[in-house]
Amino acid sequence: MSPPVLEIDDLTMRFGGLTAIDRLSFKVERGAIHGLIGPNGAGKTTTFNVVSGFYKPTGGEVRLRGETISGLRMYEVARRGVVRTFQHSTLFAELTVLENVLIGTHMSFPPNIFAAMAGVDKANRRAARARAEEALDFFGLAGLADELAGDLPHGHQRALGMAVALAARPDVVLLDEPFTGMNPEETRRMMELMVKLRDTGVTILLVEHDMHAIMGLCDRITCMSFGRLLAEGNPQEIRHHPDVIEAYLGGARHVA
Amino acid sequence: MAKFAALFGFGAILLALPHALSFSQQEILVFLTINVLLVASYRLLTLTGEWSLGHVVIMGVGAYASALLSKRLGIYVPVAMLLGAVTAAMIALALSFPLFRMKGFYFLIGSFAAGEIIRLLWKRFRDPFGGPKGLKKIDPMPDFDIGIYAFDFFEPVSYYYFALAVVGVSLWVMWRIERSPVGLTFHAVHWQDRLAEASGVNVRAYRTLAFVLASGFAGLSGALLAHYIGTINPNSFDVEQMVFVLTWTIVGGTATFYGPILGCVVLTVLNEIVLREAGFEQMRPLIYGLILILSVLFMPKGLESLVRGAFSGRNARKNKAGETKAME
Ligand SMILES: Nc1ncnc2c1ncn2[C@@H]1O[C@H](COP(=O)(O)OP(=O)(O)O)[C@@H](O)[C@H]1O
Ligand SMILES: [Mg+2]
């Protein structure tokens, strides 16, 4: 069995007196779709923020392929192959759809100012553009390349957020509620794309409220509540786990 | 092709322009050309979303450096100008370490403080900066001949052509940068720095890059100024000048490359031709303040929005004209 690609080890994150993550530990296997669930305010987004380097943890650490990445800056984590999306559609609203995805290719095709001035970066630009168009194609956004990102309907914005992340060809992608604002048809199509991605070897860590999607997609699920690990297992185990059912009933939400 | 012809025509107008002007207007034209470079470099800085109040002082760094290098070390003036630009860029790089710990409003205040410290150093150290009186008798550009035209830098027209060439090349370089993936990354850092960083962009490095580049071009404009007027002092680069740069930029608008340039040209023409001729010279800061407030209130997207409106309006009218023709 290959070692886990991502290890969350005894992670703690405090904001003043509030403990948003409390000694959380779990592992994500390479090439898995791993769900992270829990009631609102459980600390899922905060976990993403720590793993992606947006926050430095108060305690514990995050390891990628055995190497500690917690405490690194967000762009340094990204350069090691962990790319995230944001819970609320966070896009370059003033730029076009294509330009958004081009930023996603930044790491694979780093701009070079001297080459740009001398006009000798044509091959690089063409390759970046090809990669960007490929990502748009994958998410069915190719026809919208010249629209302003801010003008897109909500579902398309979510898809674009994922296209930006995946244009970077990450090893691990962190998706924070990617299906919000999508209709059932869009969600179904996105789920198929997730599986397709997983099959190309990308590891996906998924936060999602749509239980149908979570249960249908995930190889493994971690459930947290009040910042703590509540349960872990495959979808069957999680669905019937008494603590999980209890937490969701307490949080006024049903497990599918 | 039409674009090329338009560019060619525009160039011809710029070349012919000084011959339609009086001597004092020619001098103003030289200042205007230099200020176009200054304001365009300021826009490059604002691409990443940070507004500095120290830009004119950085221009001064280029002016002092170029003046001193040519005066003290006898370095050939055009080379000294380039070195002046490099010095301004290097000072900006050093300043970026404390300044880019701050963002937005704090960056604005920090840049102002940094600029005032530099101006204090100029005032405090008589050697080499000449103290409050500044530097005098700065070496002029040496005359030279390029075959089709003999540059005699005693004439403003000659210096105008020289400045026009330098500024033209600088603008072209800035334009290329903005249109490149580097420029796109500047915009990304401005609009959504979190997503940019999550995409692997070293946001701090890109902010610094824009700041250093903009400062280099500002320093070049300062060097052009120093060797034209021949004397500079700490007050040549005070906050009043900075207010002019801000006014040009805001009145012109920052959404396009040409916005701030348009603001600079329109306000300079208004100022020099209208105000000076009408004898309102003393009230210049007051009138500028008024224009700034009015434009923020009534034209928040700047003069450039009028130009864009006019163009789309003209196209719309053209289409309409086409339709009527078709109907007939
Ligand atoms: N930057 C912050 N400052 C203070 N409290 C925060 C911050 N970010 C998150 N929290 C708190 O941490 C808890 C977990 O939030 P979050 O991770 O967003 O939950 P989830 O994504 O699981 O709904 C919440 O109580 C939230 O208010
Ligand atoms: Mg959340």
Describe the protein in words.
The complex is a heterodimer of chains A (256) and B (328). Chain A has helices at 44-51, 74-79, 97-104, 113-118, 122-138, 154-166, 184-199, 211-217, 235-239, 242-250, and strands at 6-15, 18-28, 33-37, 59-64, 67-68, 82-84, 172-176, 203-207, 220-225, 228-233. Chain A has 256 residues and is of the alpha/beta class. Chain A has a 6-stranded mixed sheet with strand order 6-7-8-3-9-10, with helices on both faces. A 4-stranded antiparallel sheet of chain A has the order 2-1-4-5, covered by helices on one side. In chain A, a hairpin with a 2-residue loop joins strand 9 and strand 10 (228-233). Chain A is globular, with a radius of gyration of 19 Å. The mean pLDDT of chain A is 91. With 328 residues, chain B is mainly α. Chain B has 14 helices and 2 strands, in the order ααααααββαααααααα. A two-stranded antiparallel ribbon of chain B has the order 1-2. In chain B, strand 1 (144-145) and strand 2 (150-151) form a beta hairpin. Chain B is globular and about 55 Å long. Chain A binds chain B through residues 52, 54, 73-75, 78-79, 83-84, 86, 90-95, 99, 102-104, 106-107, 109, 111-113, 116-117, 119, 121, 124-125, 128, 164-165, 168, and chain B through 173, 176-177, 180-182, 184-185, 187-188, 191-192, 194-203, 209. Adenosine-5'-diphosphate (ADP) binds next to strand 2 and helix 1 of chain A. Magnesium ion is lined by residues 44-45, 87 of chain A.
